[in-house]
Write a structure and sequence with these properties.
The complex is a heterodimer.
Chain A: E1 9-14, E2 17-22, H1 27-33, E3 40-41, E4 48-49, E5 62-65, E6 68-72, E7 83-86
Chain B: E1 17-23, H1 27-38, E2 43-47, E3 62-63, H2 72-91, E4 102-106, H3 109-124, E5 130-133, H4 134-140, E6 150-154, E7 158-159, H5 162-175, E8 179-182, E9 186-190, E10 197-200, E11 203-212, H6 218-224, E12 232-241, E13 251-254, H7 257-262, E14 269-276, E15 282-288, H8 299-312, E16 321-331, E17 338-341, E18 348-352, H9 358-374, H10 388-393
Parallel strand pairs in B: 1-2, 1-11, 2-8, 4-13, 11-18
Antiparallel strand pairs in B: 3-7, 4-6, 5-6, 9-10, 10-11, 12-15, 12-16, 13-14, 14-15, 17-18
The chains are: A mainly beta, B alpha/beta.
Chain lengths: 96, 397
């Protein structure tokens, strides 16, 4: 599945699946363009979450990108080769 | 999907008469209402806005004995910590009560010597305090800065989610028959020398007695009721981080926090207070300043707080801050709570002036208020907290 438009595209992985998106997309746009509407579960009740406010305020769209946990998908641009995973919604995991 | 909401409490009009009117539905007012209703008194709680609309929602939920220098407030804090544990047992986990303990850290040997002297004096007053050397400090808090020489562990310090706790206390009071009426602003009191009624924006309530638990607004409420209470809002900031795995085990703060609490300067004073919450977020305080009720956050203050917190927990430099908030503490001129009868209006009682300790001191405050209203002897001597001391200090007595 792909969400390529007429311009340049980038390739990335989401939970292991190879996907593409128009270059310059936010991760949220890239995922939604591939039909993925939810990319994390809430920590307590396990309810699905995805894009809500879209402007960096609500913290609902957190996603794990490469080695960085809990980034806001609406505020980060997808880059070629990104390895994106559904988020555990908890940041800064390398304490030890 | 529809969600079935519980019937709204506080929507009904206030009753025409109540044995005792409690003004303020923050934690202090909620604790007073709960204690009075438990003692069989007829209670009506009113609030200008609604439950936990003010200071209770603007703080951290600390129940501390560690930051009290030996004296009357320390006795009240010890009593209150015990009452909190009893309430938490009854609430069965409904308000995130944690007896997590507090760790106070020193930055250098001079601070450590002073901190240890304070801890020894506190021990004589019944506070549990365990001296920690550098390795002991790192055993208690594995992610703490390796440069810190030591500190003191206070196992009696607790944490609570104050909004949940106040809501639980109000719900319990309501179950025991208390009326709750929100959106009722106090306009004036009635009666000569003795208060007989409170006029509110939602009607008049004839009252046998009135408890003023309006926090930083309690001075204004006292004035409208014909009394006097010199309470000023002392502003504080808190930073909230993204949710993290549990990395900070205790409430951790700098030893100069106590000095900051006791200072009288109008300028912003900062000292680091860091703690994790059940939700995973880390709360970073603290600041104290007299800036009226200005809700605009101060970037220099937030920056100073963050710098101090990262000096204690270096890993915080890699953690995102989600938001900040400000709150207003009810500050009395001598930094002691003001609990007891107004000096001029009979039947008016104040439960205020706790500054940043209102959450922790609320149950013991409620116990004092309940005893004073019943004419009985409370377990803690109320004399040091009497409003009359302030009038005397001002030459008004």
């Amino acid at each position: 599945m792909s969400a390529s438009g007429p311009g340049p595209t980038v390739s990335f992985r989401y939970d292991g699946a190879a996907l593409t998106a128009p270059a310059g997309s936010t991760i949220a746009a890239a995922l939604i363009g591939n039909g993925i509407l939810s990319w994390r579960m809430t920590r307590r009740r396990g309810e699905p979450r995805g894009l809500f406010c879209g402007i960096g305020q609500c913290q609902d769209c957190l996603v794990d990108v490469n080695e960085s946990p809990a980034l806001r998908a609406c505020q980060v641009f997808v880059r070629d080769g990104d390895d994106i995973a559904a988020s555990r919604s908890v940041g800064w995991r390398d304490a030890d | 999907m529809t969600v079935a909401l519980p019937p709204a409490r506080g929507a009904e009009d206030p009753p025409a008469a109540a044995e005792i009117v409690v003004i303020g539905a923050g934690l202090v007012g909620a604790a007073c209402a709960h204690a009075l209703a438990t003692a069989g008194r007829g209670v009506c709680v009113i609030d200008r806005a609604g439950p936990v609309a003010g200071t209770t929602a603007g703080g951290e939920g600390n129940i501390l004995v560690s930051d009290k220098v030996p004296g009357p407030e320390a006795g009240l804090a010890l009593r209150s910590a015990r009452l909190w544990r009893e309430l938490a047992d009854r609430a069965e986990g409904r308000f995130e009560f944690e007896q997590k303990g507090g760790v106070v850290v020193a930055h250098d040997d001079e601070q450590l010597t002073a901190l240890r002297a304070l801890a020894r004096a506190q021990r004589d007053g019944g506070v549990d305090a365990e001296l920690l050397d550098g390795p002991g400090l790192r055993a208690a808090e594995p992610h703490i800065s390796p440069g810190l020489p030591g500190g003191v562990f206070y196992p009696q310090d607790c944490q609570v989610q104050p909004m949940l706790a106040a809501s639980w206390l109000l719900a319990e009071a309501s179950r025991l028959g208390a009326h709750l009426a929100w959106g009722a602003d106090v306009l004036a009191g009635e009666g000569h020398d003795r208060i007989t009624a409170v006029q509110t924006s939602r009607g008049r309530i004839a009252a046998g007695a009135v408890v003023n638990a309006a926090g930083p607004w309690s001075g204004l409420v006292a004035e409208r009721l014909g009394g006097r209470l010199p309470i000023r809002p002392r502003r504080g900031h808190i930073l909230v981080t993204e949710p993290l795995p549990p990395l900070i085990r205790h409430k951790v703060y700098e030893s100069d926090y106590v000095t900051t609490v006791m200072s009288d300067s109008d300028d912003a004073a900062c000292s680091a207070v860091v703690e994790g919450t059940r939700a995973g977020t880390v709360l970073i305080g603290s600041s104290r300043e007299f800036a009226g009720f200005d809700r605009r956050p101060s970037l220099p203050v937030l920056t100073a707080m963050a710098a101090r917190a990262t000096a204690i927990f270096p890993f915080l430099t890699g953690v995102r801050v989600l938001r900040s908030y400000v709150g207003f503490r009810p500050a009395s001129p001598d930094h002691l709570p003001v609990i007891g009868a107004d000096t001029t209006v009979a039947g008016l009682y104040h439960a205020s002036g706790h500054e940043g300790a209102g959450i922790g001191l609320a149950p013991a405050t409620a116990e004092l208020v309940t005893a004073l209203l019943a004419g009985s002897t409370p377990p803690v001597d109320p004399a040091p907290f009497a409003p009359a001391r302030l009038a005397a200090a001002e030459g008004l007595a």
